[in-house]
Amino acid sequence: MVIAQSLLKKYKKFKTLPHLAIRLSQLISNEHSTVYQLEEVIRLDPTLVLRLMRLINSPYYGLHQKVDNISRAVIFVGMRNLRNMIVIEALKDIFKNPPDEQIFSRKQLWLHCAAVSICGQMISERIFGINGEDAFLCGILHDVGMIVEDQVEHDLFIRACKAYHAESKPFSECEKEIIGTDHCMVGYLLARDWELPPEVQLGIKQHHLISENISSSRLIGIIQLAEYIVGKLGYTALPGMHGILSPPLIRHIHDNVEEYKTLAKDLPEELSKAKELYHPDES
Prior knowledge:
283 residues; Hypothetical protein af1432; 0% strand
């Protein structure tokens, strides 16, 4: 953890959410906050206003009538979705490609994270009948530690990527051997700094944990299931990297194979509808 904390201290560009986003997150976490209070804060950021309006009027929500004011948009999007959108807006620019794109592509990582977030939300809602916003948030952030490593210790991170391609060991082991920590711990500490929900923090920290004690309906299990499915569909963080499931999750998929086949079939369309939500090249 000490090395992970050291990396974050060096991560000057994006160690914390912007002040405006922090204020919005605090309001969203307060059950007594009003739509009017949120609207007053959102108005201070024209980019956020534009993105909110584009999102609420995009195919992702499929509304028949155009929404043209902030209050209505907040009501339609919902508090947790608004929080997720704020995080996505803050993340978007850092996923633009640096050098060594052939070895590690930030755009490929962003598409992987987007796929995991959408798939995780689908699993939560379709398979387990539970609210999927936290699964979405955890999915979009679960590999953000890679970005920190790439920016702060670029040469070491690229060495870890090359070692992973050359060997059969898990990527997190390559990270620990070369960098001294892994993206799971770095991402966890970043999420903790942002005061995101504790279960989201833990999901980021343990999304590669293989254990008999992981429940399929808990956030960690849902993220593992989502990574496994999107990996099978080609949405991988690194070329050739596929999700590994804990034993209880293997049994869960086996027992519900038809539902997961349908979900995997529907995922590309859901990703297409959600393009406004995650596309890294749009302002």
